[in-house]
Design goal:
Elements (H helix, E strand, L loop, with lengths): L6 E5 L3 H14 L4 E5 L2 H9 L9 E4 L8 H9 L9 E5 L4 H10 L3 E4 L4 H18 L10
Parallel strand pairs: 1-2, 1-3, 3-4, 4-5
Length: 145
């Protein structure tokens, strides 16, 4: 059976962060399929109209976005059977305890605070890549690689 490439959706309205994330994953996993969404509405619309085989292996979700923030996206995702098991890593600038607590209570699988330097972001995303794509087991319906 031929393996599909890693498929990651990134919801973040900061263009610089998106470029950095793209660059890191291109170096980590050149066959990785990255899709970027500037707001939660567009991400949810794509997710809710996707076939099961087209769902991402992982979603990197920022909290602060226009139209629909990360909390609303996460809450909506976890209320839909098709999206309930899709791994969501909160990747955001906030390290406030309340934000972390809220995300986990809404069903986030992980929470990471964006570092301020490219080298630290590379370390963080390398760790996330190793964890989500080489270490843990996820249900076959969300594993698309």
């Amino acid at each position: 059976m031929k393996r599909k490439p890693f498929k990651i959706y990134v919801a973040d309205d900061d263009e610089d962060d998106c470029l950095l994330i793209k660059h890191v994953f291109e170096n980590l996993q050149p066959t990785c399929e990255l899709s970027f969404f500037k707001d939660g509405d567009k991400l949810l619309m794509t997710l809710l109209t996707s076939k099961l085989d087209d769902l991402p292996s992982l979603i990197l979700l920022d909290l602060n976005m226009p139209n629909m923030d990360g909390y609303e996206v996460l809450k909506t995702m976890r209320s839909h059977a098709l999206l309930k098991q899709t791994p969501v890593l909160m990747l955001t600038g906030s390290n406030m305890e309340e934000a972390i607590r809220n995300c986990y209570s809404l069903g986030a699988n992980s929470y990471m605070t964006k570092p301020s330097s490219y080298s630290k972001l590379t370390e963080l995303l390398t760790t996330a890549h190793q964890y989500w794509f080489k270490t843990v087991s996820v249900p076959s319906m969300v594993r698309t690689f």
